[in-house]
Amino acid sequence: KDLRPPVIPLALSPGSGILMAILVQMTITGKSFIGGNTGIALAANLTASSRLWQDAAGVPRFSCRNCHITLVSPQSSAPTRNLHAGFSHTFLVALQLCPAVDAVLNLVNAKLATMISEIPLGTAGTLRCALLNPPMMSETFIELDLESILHQKEGKEVNVPMDQPSLTSLTPKRDAATQLILSSNFLGAELSILQASFNLDISNNMVLGLPPLVTTVLGALIPEISRVLPPSQPVVIEMRELKAPVVTITPGKSFVQLFSTTEFRVSPSDCSP
Prior knowledge:
Layout (H helix, E strand, L loop, with lengths): L1 E2 L6 E3 L4 E15 L5 E18 L5 E12 L3 E2 L4 H15 L1 H17 L5 E2 L4 E7 L4 E2 L4 E2 L2 E7 L4 E2 L25 H10 L6 E3 L12 H7 L1 H6 L6 E16 L2 E14 L7
């Protein structure tokens, strides 16, 4: 008749894993074999603890350590104690909550296993993460110390200095929030792999909303162009990166410096550039 959604509070156990308690409540009603209506209100409380550890491949994993189910204050209008006990036993057998906990942890582990999968950075290279140290648990958060491994498309590994950002300078964690701490060295190394992606050839109508890319328009912005190039000719702007970008992170601000050269090429409508 009445199956209430389970109540599942979770708590982090410092140095261990997760503690959970699941309360399931339901009411069963029907006809008694001796006549009249009968019913039983049942509630079961599951308590379980899990351990967070690091496997041989360097992936964090959860495993269930203890799982117990107990009935909580069953109430019954059943005509006999045997019927009451039978209902209670059937209820406990039907719940199968401990295997359900294992199934949920397996789903979480499947998500965690993707940590060591290679992530393509377009066609420029790949990124892979590995767990440096066993996970650290506190009462409020789980901390994972990750190593980022970058490879160029030729397979050569990019050296990333192992600097550690100061955790004391971080903003306070909000409820149900994930914080990802990235160093300037890592960001700079990743952008160095993507350096060729910053090379651009900008031609007319390539960027919506901008005026026509012709010598007359550019000459109004850069007078030198109007003095050396014929008017109303289509222009191609070539931007090339000279060296890897530099990332600077300061409290409250971050900067990316790009080192580019820009060339303006004019292509008359009846000839090549």
